[in-house]
Amino acid sequence: MPAAPHHPENTVRALIESPHVSAATRAALLDRLETAAQPYTPQFFDADTFALLQAVCARLLPQPERAAPIEVAPRIDERLAAGLSDGWRYDVLPPDREAYRLGLGGIQQEAQAQFGQPFAQLAPEQQDETLRRVQQATAAGAAWQTLDGPRFFEELLAEATALYYQHPLAQEEIGYVGMADLPAWTRIGLDEREDREPQPIQP
Amino acid sequence: MPGEESLEEGVLNPSKPTVEPDIQDPLLRQLLQTSPPPQPQQQPVPTPRAEVDCIVIGTGAGGAPLLARLAMAGLKVVALEAGPRHDARRDFATDEKAQEFLFWNDERLSAGRTPTSFGNNNSGTGVGGSTLHYTAYTPRAQPDDLRLRTEFGVGEDWPLSYDDLAPYYDELEHFLGISGPSPYPWGPARRRGYPLAPLPLNGAAQLMQRACEQLGIRTSPAANAALSARYYQEGIGWREACTNRGFCQAGCSVGAKASMDVTFLPLAEAHGAEIWPNCFVTEIERDAQGAITGVVYETDGQQQRLGCRTLFLCAGAVETPRLLLLNELALSSGQVGRNFMAHPGIQVWGTFDEMVRPYKGIPGALISEDTHRPTDADFAGGYLLQSIGVMPVTFASQVARGRGLWGQPLRDYMRQYNHIAGINILGDCLPHADNYLELADEKDARGLPKPRVHFSFHDNEERMTAHAEKLMRRIWDAAGARDIWAFPRSAHVIGTCRMGLSGDYAVVDTDGRAFGVPNLYICDNSVFPSALSVNPALTIMALSLRTADRFLETQKRLDTKTKS
Q1: What pLDDT, on a 0 to 100 scale, did the predictor assign at position B13?
Q2: Can you give the three-state secondary structure of B301-355, one letter per residue?
Q3: N or C terminus: fewer CB in 10 A for chain B?
Q4: Which residues of chain B have a CB within 8 Å of the CB of A186?
Q5: What ipTM describes this predicted complex?
Q6: Is residue B6 in some structural domain?
Q7: What is the pLDDT of residue B21?
Q8: How many structural domains compose chain B?
């Protein structure tokens, strides 16, 4: 795979303030930036479980280049505390709150079983190996007798991924500037670029 | 204001079954016949309550067109919509997260070997229903789509023909302002072309067009219910042209997409229809003969009641059967909830050297129906091919679910977002006995059982999917893609209250009227006897207009009888 393109920093922040972004869109994006910057106290998980969730999410979406990584664990905790749903769930999984409690417990069990230490204290490669076992249905441990590991992992990964790419800076990272759609896109064909769309910096 | 009475006692409903038994004893019967009529205190005097000619439950593609038709015929009609009313121009953001309110987010349980997803995959809520969310892709069904059993010996025939639908397709295309190619390359000749030229092709469409040309597959700009030019809509006024913001699936803020909130619903209101948002219907009430007398709905945490002479249930292929099952209504055929179908909708993605920027332009810009009846098919029915644009969060979620990528590989792959393009299919699905909707033991926030939907692809769907994946990989190869991968999925919710000629195996008749319940009509994707090889929205709307016309015919006949 060729090295991934990068995009100039501050593209999205500058666009948000521009007349190319509608008031409703601007309000949503600024609110998300603001919320993400706030310190967060877990409401649903206890402190230890929340720290475990953070450690898991840090492997799903590692951000070594960011001084302040985009945190997705707070958003998951918020959602579970509020009891919100995205409209469906796999029937093989228990309700979301229970699935998260069981699943995180199972990850901890698997870390102990394989490496004799809590997940958070493992080396990154060991953490990845633990998660891979859950994803591939090879994790042992009591939790995985009742919880479908691959489906739980899929749900956790899909939620964490969606939360990450909802963040304006993650959108900037991939060169998405669809939020700046005013007054219209007119150059929409292959290799056609509107002036306000950033040029990628080839590595 | 929506109904002002609170819930009262004494009207029959399924939780209090008080249907009077037939009196078997001849002496008692005689006594009752000669005695004065039953004392009013047996049934507490009902407080006066509002009654309208027709209640329509749901304001999507099934409910909105008929609401307008009924209002234009002078009937007093009220639509009850579970979701809120939006001001799309002011409130709709170009942001997937911010638009999550658009989806039906009450949890549904997805069971089966290939569980289908709900939420943002196929549902909407609010005034306009799921048309707030649809991609505006509006091909017509082809005549043989309606005769699957005749042609292949599997699936079901529709009890009506293409000729019954064609005049409605024509009317809709011109009323909604559909942008598309004229003449349309597939299907029977048409009375007239689309009223507007096709929308411009985006990057994915150009790639697919180029490759299909090499491979000898015919393509065409697709028919989309989004305006390629400003359009004057009878009874509504001017609607603005599409600005290519690529955001159809999460709500149009321009009014260019023909969702019901900017087309049939304002038309209905202009003719006196009322639309009451935030009204979630929980009960359907009947009299001793089983005729519907009205509904009970929740609004603002209060229960309210509204009476009607005829009920139109247009809540979609999940909520419609759910409401019938909850109310033990129209169940005599045993088919409510059965025959659940979802279109095979496998997507194939690839990475291109060219800059695609998949967030721009109408998402489904290009179509091919050359696969409607492939000569080398080892399955019944067929499918259509379409190019697809995609928004970043939706795409990232699919990468996570479909490729199972995480960690650095996920972030590296996503950095190529602007070079990624997709094609997908939409294909027929057969009804299978183990694909059905039921009420689960688990309750939702209202205390009502959640719907559980069992869905598994069988041989026919698997073979069609394999055929399509092979073809789409060839197309993307020819287009110069690398790192091609497939995301198997299903789209749309269909069936569960099927239409047919007999109440032995169907829930509604050809006019959309429920067997066994004279004043109940159902109109949405639940009545489809087969899934069709095209997106359902245009056909739902056609059925909606037809259902209204058939109903109005019967009213006319009744009026004539009364007068003579």
Answers
A1: 41
A2: CEEEEEEEEEEEECCHHHHHHHHHHHHCCCCCCCCCCCCCEEEECCEEEEECCCC
A3: C
A4: 244
A5: 0.97
A6: no
A7: 39
A8: 1
CATH code of the domain in which B337 resides:
3.50.50.60
Domain region containing B476:
50-106+119-563
Chain A's closest residue to B451, CA to CA, is: A88
Residue B226's DSSP bridge partners are B257
Mutate: best of A11, A188, A197, A202, partner B, most B CBs <10 A: A188
Cα gap A150→B446, rounded to integer Å: 31
Q: Is residue B3 part of a domain?
A: no
CA dist B206 and B356 (Å) reads 10
Closest partner CB to B361 (pick from A59, A87, A188): A188
| B243/A91 Cβ within 8 A | no
DSSP state letter for B42: G
A-B contacts at Cβ under 8 angstroms:
193
CB B63 within 8 A of CB B57: yes
Q: What angle do CA A31, A36, A38 make, to 5 degrees?
A: 100
**Separation between Cα atoms, residue B263 and residue B239, nearest integer Å:** 9
In a domain, B370, yes or no: yes
The CA distance from A41 to the nearest CA of chain B, in Å, is 22
Confidence (pLDDT) at B40: 41
Identify any residues that bridge with B499 across adjacent strands, giving them in sequence order.
B508
What does each C-alpha distance from B75 to A173, B67, B78, B151, B311 come to in angstroms?
Answer: 56, 10, 10, 41, 13
Pick among B247, B352, B411 to test the A interface (most A CBs inside 10 A): B411
* Closest partner CB to A60 (pick from B118, B407, B442): B407
Q: Is B458 helix (H, G, I), strand (E, B) or coil?
A: coil
What single string gives the DSSP state of each residue in B82-93?
SS----HHHH--
A62 upstream amide cis, omega within 30 of 0: no
* Contact assignment for A174 to B414 by CB distance below 8 Å: yes
- The secondary element (H helix, E strand) that includes residue B215 is helix B203-215
Distances in Å between the alpha carbon of A96 and those of A46, A158, B196, B446, B453?
16, 13, 47, 18, 18
Mean pLDDT in each 10-residue stretch from start to end of chain B (564 residues)? 38 39 46 46 49 98 98 98 96 97 96 96 94 97 98 98 98 97 97 98 98 98 98 89 97 97 97 98 96 96 96 98 98 97 98 98 98 98 97 98 97 97 98 98 95 98 98 98 97 97 97 97 98 98 98 87 62
Q: Which helix (H) or strand (E) holds B429?
A: none
On whether residue B88 sits in a domain, the answer given is yes
Q: What is the pLDDT of residue B379?
A: 98
HEC string of B230-271? CEEECCCEEECCCCCCCCHHHCCCCCCECCHHHCHHHHHHHC
**What residues of B are in contact with residue A133 (Cβ under 8 Å)?**
none
Closest-CA residue to A71 (of A60, A86, A85): A60
pLDDT (0 to 100) of residue B205: 98
* CA B278 centroid distance within chain: 19
Structure tokens at A89: 């769930």
Residues B336, B324 contacting (CB under 8 angstroms): yes
Q: Which residue has the tokens 């909830």?
A: B337
- B396:A128 CB<8 A: no
The 10s digit of each residue's pLDDT in A100-121 is 999 999 999 999 999 999 999 9
At B85, list the tokens. Answer: 């009313």
